[in-house]
Amino acid sequence: MGASVVGIDLGTTNSAVAVVRAGEPEIVPSAAGDRTVPSVVAVDDGRRLVGRPAKNQAVRNCENTVQSIKRSMGETGVTVELDGDRYTPEAVSAMILRRIRRDTEAYLGETVERAVITVPAYFTDRQRQATKDAGEIAGFDVERIVNEPTAAAMAYGVGETMSPGDQRTVVVYDLGGGTFDVSVLEVTEGMFEVVATSGDTDLGGDDWDAELIGWAVERFERDHGVDLREDREAMQRLTEATERAKVALSSRVETELRVPFITSTGAGPQDLEYTLTRSEFEERTAHLVERTIGPTEQAMADAGVSPAGVDEVLLTGGSTRMPAVRRTVERLTGTEPRQGINPDEAVALGAAIQGGVIGGDVEDVLLVDVTPLSLGVEVRGGLFERVIHRNTTIPTRATKDFTTASDGQTEVEIRVYQGERERAAENTLLDEFTLGGIPPAEAGVPRIEVTFTIDTNGIVQVGAEEVNTGTAAGITIEGGVGLPAEEIESMREEARRHETADRRRRQRIEAQNRVEDSIGRTRRLLESDPDEAVAAGLQRVVDDAEQLLEDDPAVEELNRAHDRFEEILSEVDIEERSGGRLPD
Ligand code: AMP
Fold first, then answer.
1. Which residue from 6, 47, 127, 140 has the least number of CB within 10 angstroms?
2. Is the minimum distance from the CB of 11 to ligand 1 under 6 angstroms?
3. Ligand 1 within 6 A of 487 CB?
C-alpha cells in the first residue's frame, strides 16, 4: 500500500503517532514498544539519541540534551547547541519526527510519507508553518496541520452521532508535561470549531515532579546532611523515581519513593526511601491544580458558556490522569470528563482519523479551526484596524476598505499586525509591504481594498488593491516575525488590562483624525473660491480647530469641533468620506 496518512501528536514532552487500519485509528508503538515517545534529543558519547534513551540521560547530561523544543517553534533566530553544532527548532523537531517515521515504517512494513501533525489551537501562523517545515525536513508530506483539541474531539467521535441542527459544546482540558491548554469547541454535525482557547504555557506534569523532588531533597538533607542537588547522577535517578511515584499515586493511595544507594556518606551508602500518600501529594501540589482554574474559566467566559451549557468534557495530556485534576475539571465544568481513550493518545488518534479522511480510509469529516489573535493593519494615528477578529473560524477571508491619509498620496504602506491592543505598535508586526501606483487624488478619495486570507493550515495572505486602477500588491506571511506561544496569552491579558485606557486613547485619536480630515476638506473648499461670507466663516472654524489641536484637547472638545465642521460643511454640501486612512 504505502498510502497511509499517519497522525502525529508532536508534543512538548511526549509525541505519539497513530494510523487508521481497517477503519479504526490505532497507536503505532515505537521500536522499543512504547506508545509515546519523549520529545527529547541528545548526544551522548558522540551518539545521537532520540526519545526514551535521550530522556533517560537528560538530567545527567543536560548540556547535550534538548527538551521542550516545541516552546521555541516559530521563534526567529533561535538555535540550540547539540554536540558543537547549532540547530533550529524545526531541525530538532525533525529529528523526533524522523525517528517516528522510521519506527512507523518498520511497524507497518511500508513507507510512510504523508502525515497530519497537530499543534495547540493558539499556535500562530508562524508556529504552524515551522511545524510544517519540521515535518517536511523529516521527509513527510504534511497534508494538514490540525488543532490538538479538535483532534481530541474527533478521537472521541464527538461529531459522529449527531443529527442535522444539533450542536454540542465541548471543553477540552489538556495538561501535559510542560504546558496547559484549555479549549472550548462547538461541534455541529461532523464539524468542529474551536471557539475559545486559554492556558498556561508554563504549567505541566514537570511542575508536579519538581514539587516532589524539592520535598525529597529537603527531607534527605535533613535526615542525612547531604544536598543531592550537587550530584547529577543522583538527581537523574531521583527525577525518574519521582515521576514513577507520581504516576503510581494516580491509581494508588500510597507509594514508596525509592532510590537505592543514591549517595554515600561517612556512614556508608545511603538509600532514599520515603512513603508518600496521595493526600500528602495532593496537598503539596494543590496550588498547581489551582493554576488551571483561571484559564478554564476564562475560556468558558470567552466562549460564553456556563457549566450548564457544557455537553462534554475531554481530557488530554498524561497529567490529567491525576485524580485531583479530574475532580477540579469536573467541578469547574459541572460535567464528568469522558473516559475510554488514554489521555496521552487521544490527540494522535484524532490526527490519524483526519489522516484517514485525507487518505480516503474514513468517511469525510469537516474541520474548522479558529484564529487566536486579531489580525489587521495600521491606520493613521498609529491605530490598529482589525480585519479579522480573534476567535474567527478558519479558513477565512475578509476584506475591508481603506483610503489615503494625505492629498496626492501615490503609495500606501500596509503594515500587518497581530494582537489585541488598539495601537498598532503595541501589537506584533508580522510583515509590511507597499502598494504603489495610486493615481494622485485628494486624501480619502482612492478606494483601497485590503483582503486577509487564512488557509486551513493557518497561513496568512494579505493583499491590497486600488480599486479604480486594479493595481495590486500582496504578501504571504510565512517567514515573518512570529510570536512565541507563551506570548499569546500574555498579549491577551495585557489587552484586557489596558482595555479601558486603550479605548479612550483610540477614541481620542479617532476624534483627532476626524477634525484633521475636516480641516483638510474645508481648506480645499476655501481654495475653490467660495462666497466671501462663507469663506470667512469657514476660515474661522479652521483656525479655531487648528488652535484646539495644539492645546492637547479632550475627546469632547474634539467632537464639538467636528460637529461645527459638520454643520458648516453640510450647508455647503460636502460629504464626509469614510474608510481607514493608510499611512504613506
Ligand atoms: P504528555 O506530554 O501528554 O504525554 O504528558 C506527560 C506528563 O504526564 C508527564 O509529566 C507525565 O509524568 C504525566 N503522566 C503520565 N501518566 C501519568 C499518571 N498516570 N499520573 C500522573 N501523571 C502522569
1. 47
2. yes
3. no
